[in-house]
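hey team, just a heads up i'm posting the complex here instead of the shared drive bc the drive is being weird again. everything in one block, sequence lines first with there labels, then the predicted structure for the whole assembly after. its two chains so it's a bit long, scroll down
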Amino acid sequence: MVSIDVTNLQKTFQTKRKAAGLGGSIRSLFKPDYSSVEAVRNLSFQMSSGELLGFIGPNGAGKSTTIKILTGILHPSGGEAKVLGFTPWIDRQKLAYHIGTVFGQRPQLWYHLPAMDTFILFGKIYELDDVETKKRIDFLTEAFEIKDLLDVPVRKLSLGQRMRCEVAASLLHRPKLLLLDEPSIGLDVVAKQHIRDAIKRMNQEEGVGVLLTSHDAGDLEALCKRVIIVNHGQIVYEDKVSNLKRKFLTTKLVEVRYAMEVSKDFAIQGVEILKVGHYGVKLKFDTTKTAVDSVISHLSGAGDIVDITISDPPLEEVIAKIYQEAENA
Amino acid sequence: MKEFKFLFAIWKTNLQSAMEYRAAFLTQAIGMMVNNFIYFAIWIIFFDRFKDVRGWGVNDMYVTFGVLASAFGLVSLLFGNAFNLSDIIAKGRLDYYLSLPRPVLLHTIASRTIASGMGDFLYGFVSYGLSGYFTWDGLARYVLATLLAATVFAAFLILTQSLAFWFGMMTNFSNLVLNAMLTFGIYPITLFDSYAKLILFTLIPAALMGAIPAEFIRAFTWQTLGELLLGAIGFLTLAIFTFRMGLRRYESGSAIQIEV
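-- predicted structure starts here --
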């Protein structure tokens, strides 16, 4: 079953332009100059119920605008979208009962109050009865490990603690779909892992679909099965995360440590030498151009190997490569 | 009914939030009452010297200033974000309200309590009590007139601040007309000729916040009640319509925000 169905979605903003300085400000006062910015350009995609879909792209790619259209916050300039069968900008209120949203830069918890007070308020906003609200809070408290945080004013929580409470609050009304816009922004590794684990659990136990925008490739690897990469408001790549890795992770990074000192002139044909140390080398090669066994045999022929590590480049690099290819195209 | 339940929940949360800083809450409320007493002293001195202005005496001023203060206070207490709406729109801070399943305008304006509003609201009742017009049915009319004047005032705020959907930040303009509304609201209505009165019923509906409610409190007439009801319904309808039209133009934003 499809939970999000987007066809030729468009959003154009009118942006005021002004030359720098006082003169520019005065000219702009009498003769304002506007230009159109296409934030979303003919975007089409589908998302199945319960799917974990990553929606990534650089700053200004149109990710947040798309999410805001899908939640009914913004009206599109053209195209169609159905979210759980609702047209978001027409049925905003009805849709809001079935989706949860988290905007990493826009907290929904009341800043001066303990998170528990916002949870109770959300219970009223979503028309849950008090017993149901309490049960749900108990469940989310355990799932997100926030028992000790609920009675502390939000302003006194760390960013990671607050984000756990934010995501938990967005799940209070048992939404079928969770739209997360940069939920891990500014978090440390441990806080990110906490949130990823909890989201994964909610997906597995309650079948909540997750559409996630993020700059962090780690979120994508840890959570998403499928990925859509957007740039300049258009889809530049759409596939399973596993395929993304297979297609683009053709470069291997190798680190070798030898028992004896290595020659400063160390070289292998078709291999880029990144660093040569006294007892080790670091190199990179493309498996489609240079065979792995040929590189290994060269390496072992150069001396007695004490240790060797072969790794893929970080997903960030892969994504940057895709952006670059899209830019060049 | 469900919207009332929701409103009570929001107001309760506002109060809890304001009570986090009890000292600030109390000093603002008490300070505003003292401020109003000091401000009104000028009118007492004025009417002590001139006795009446075209049939308008200090007792009429007590009622007019009272109902205006109570209406202002009520809007500040229950719909405090109506004063901030332009800023919220221009900075793209409606996202929070739009992502929740409630009427966005009601949710937005009800999500803030201005503590000093309590001082204004209570001061109005004291002022009415001191006016010499006090009767028990007059008090009932005072409550009704305050509700209707507050509706006109809130609607006027929404109307002017919603212009931010078209023109960007309108806080200064809105403050300007707000001050005009409050200033003309407490002036004796008998000062104005018919053209000026037309403006005070329409463009800057100050008469519907001060003089007309005061007239209705002093003595019941169907005409004054009709004017107040018509003004309240008319301005509220216009305000909601303008906000809804503007909402289609809403452009959100990427500024970091917090819900307090």
